[in-house]
Amino acid sequence: MNCMKRTICLLECLMFGFAAFAQYNEQDIRDYIEQYSEVAIQKMHEYKIPASITVAQGIFESACGKSRLAVMGNNHFGIKCHEWAGDTILIDDDELQECFRKYPSVAESYTDHSLFLTNRKRYANLFQLDIMDYRSWARTLKQDGYATNPQYADRLISLIERFNIARLDTIYYQQANGILPVTASEPKPVAQNPKPAVKPSEPAKHSKKVFTAIGSEFPSDESPFTYRKVFKNNNTYFVIAEKGDTYEKIAQDILVMSDNLRKFNDVGPNDEPVENEIVYVEAKARGNAMRVHTVQPGETLRYISQRYGVQLRYIFKYNMLDENSVIYPGDQILLKR
């Protein structure tokens, strides 16, 4: 499976100009995101360009920093000379020996990329968009002529969503709103002997890791519709599943439709609760006063939704994620906007 994923990734990369001369795989992508995330977030603060878009473009345009233009010219965005007065480098692209900008450092390439977009009228439409809407940014970049490849926008969006790069935009949002401190903007050095990548959690669907509880952890309440003991989490009623329970049985006990019960708990038609699992008997809240959760190993977005009593669709919305997104230990998940 990993081989197939890497092959698919490589085939996608071969569609992007001079980047075709450098091969890279999924681990290279993850390393690139880690190395340049902070400088991209800093540029987002300075120039109001989504960090997810900047990093995704850098991955494609520089082949994860492995293209000749990136290695010899520190140029990670394929910006040609135009009215450039600085150093240059000649690279075969659409034509032989085309002139590209050469930078003293990658950080300066990131700065010039930001200036390139902000100082040209053709890209003015970008800055009318929601800064957290990377999909619209990708499509408008293509529409306004940044790249000639007809699939450029779709490729950027696919990359951002496959590798959850939009979490960088969430970090920016948290920093801009005082939830997290602003960090340094220099690219991180590449480790000589990097540690194995943390295996990502499963996609945000029902998984074996569920949020369980014992009654004493939560305040209890009375319900006239069931003999079961009812508790509250985030001002939302729930019961604790017993051994052998099904959603249909619980639905009968509390006088609600089983389809609604499954919807309240974000589970599919073939899922059933495990012993001591929390089962909400009404719609969860739209947010939690905790505001931010740091992901722990093995957690999924559904687990976080159940733990904090926040509707999964709102967690998706606050963090620019969806049901196919993956999360990693250490990620910051917004619980309230």
Describe this structure in words.
- The chain is an alpha+beta fold and 337 residues long.
- It has two domains: 2-176, Lysozyme; 203-337, LysM domain (Membrane-bound Lytic Murein Transglycosylase D, Chain A, Roll), CATH 3.10.350.10.
- The chain contains twelve helices and eight strands.
- It has helices at residues 2-13, 26-47, 51-62, 68-73, 106-118, 134-143, 152-162, 167-176, 247-254, 258-264, 301-308, 312-319; strands at residues 88-91, 98-101, 220-221, 230-233, 236-240, 278-280, 292-294, 332-334.
Question: Could you outline the blueprint of secondary structure elements for this entry?
Answer:
Elements: H1 2-13, H2 26-47, H3 51-62, H4 68-73, E1 88-91, E2 98-101, H5 106-118, H6 134-143, H7 152-162, H8 167-176, E3 220-221, E4 230-233, E5 236-240, H9 247-254, H10 258-264, E6 278-280, E7 292-294, H11 301-308, H12 312-319, E8 332-334
Antiparallel strand pairs: 1-2, 3-4, 4-5, 5-6, 7-8
Helix pairs in contact: 2-3, 2-5, 2-8, 3-7, 6-7
What would the keywords be for this entry?
337 residues; Lysozyme; Membrane-bound Lytic Murein Transglycosylase D, Chain A; two-stranded antiparallel sheet; 12 helices; elongated
Mean pLDDT: 83
What is the helix/strand order?
A: HHHHEEHHHHEEEHHEEHHE
User: How many domains make up the coordinates?
Assistant: 2
Proportion of beta-strand residues: 5-15%
By helix and strand content, what is the structural category? alpha+beta
What's the CATH first level of the largest domain? Mainly Alpha
Q: Look up the CATH topology of the largest domain.
A: Lysozyme
Largest sheet: 4 strands, antiparallel
Tell me the number of strands.
8
CATH architecture of the largest domain: Orthogonal Bundle
Strand order of the largest sheet: 3-4-5-6
Report how far apart the termini are. 37 Å
Give the proportion of residues in helices: 25-40%
Rg estimate, integer Å: 24 Å
Unreliable residue stretches: 1-21, 191-207
User: Judging from the principal axes of the Cα atoms, what is the shape?
Assistant: elongated
Report the total helices.
12
